[in-house]
Fold:
Amino acid sequence: MTHFGNKMDSVENDDKENTIAVKPAEHHPQIEHHPHKDNNSEKKWHKYLLILGIIQVLLLVFIAYKISALGVVTGSVPDAQAPSIPNVPSTGEAPAIDNSKLIDDDAVKGDKNAPVTIVEFSDYECPFCEKFYTQTLPQIEENYIKTGKVKLIYRDYPLGFHAQAQKAAEAAECAEEQGKYYEMHNLLFEKGVAGGVGSFKEYAKEIKLDAAKFNECLDFGKMSSEVQKDAADGSKYGVQGTPAFFINGKLLSGAQPYAVFQQAIEAELK
Structure:
């Protein structure tokens, strides 16, 4: 007979004398029910985590939607430049910069003696710059440039994540060598820059440039430093994206509607 303290009952006789007798299972109901309690708790915990995960996903989707609705555009830029800016007006937030500091030897559109000067820093591959060119600039030209009230000066601000922007800007500068800056400028916006250097050379033929001279200028990067100087000047004076405009030295950022430009120009004409 073998004894295990108070937990053992007794050893049965004869052929059962080596069998340990224990209390019947029904005397220990907790042994049967504990596993069921653990499973229920685990299921509830998993359900809670699932609901929490769904809420987090929905929250992230909502935040992404709101950011998209606000038209936030992000990105990196070369040489301390910033991304394209859709509609973020910022006039009057800083003192006006003297026009002489903003103007280099860039081509002028309009009367050089016009009382209002608009200096535009732009990128030929920037969609918001194209929007300004197609939707707002025609009205400014009709009402202010052609009437001698405004002159426009375009300066280059190619963004690093736009693969063709730098060479497109160089193409316009090379065309300026032959007196046809704005002719090339217009084609770059109207026909696009996706075709790269090959398409720029076709544009040069279209506006009847000396092809050999233009190709040499473009292929050897003759105007590369000129383009980068424009960009450096823009960054120096507060440009943080494209397009950006200085209206008599006062910064206006983004592809604003015509009414915003009209108000700023009229304020300078008073």
Remarks:
- The chain has nine helices and five strands.
